[in-house]
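Whether sequence alone determines local backbone shape is best considered at the level of individual chains. When preparing material for the folding task, we compiled for one chain both its residues and its backbone structure tokens. The sequence in question and its structure tokens are set out directly beneath this paragraph.
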Amino acid sequence: MEQLIKLKVKEESSTGEQAKRIVDSFIMSCIELNSKILEPMVNEDQLFDDKDKYRFLAFLKAQFDSARKKGLKKMVVKNGYCELCLRGCSTYEFYGTKSTPRFAYLIEIVNGEVKNIFNCNASSGWGQI
């Protein structure tokens, strides 16, 4: 089973316009298979599930490199929902050439604040129940 990775940002850096920029940059990073898009949006002192910014970016890069090795150049994003841990919460599913997602993420936003971004291994695109 794949490792669950969470992106947790500090409260003061994850609200308002900065929250929108983080979410938009994260999604674009996944679409373009380029972790460098997200890098400037995240402060050095932001923690990703008690992991520093660069360890999380390295995880993304490895995920994106794996997709590129399969011949993918760009992903298509579709909305889904979690069917396990946070049942019913919206997810972003990223598709290559197959009818199932290559990877999916749940972006948890509460009162305009980005709380978490994490890999969802039970998003609806995989048809798991």
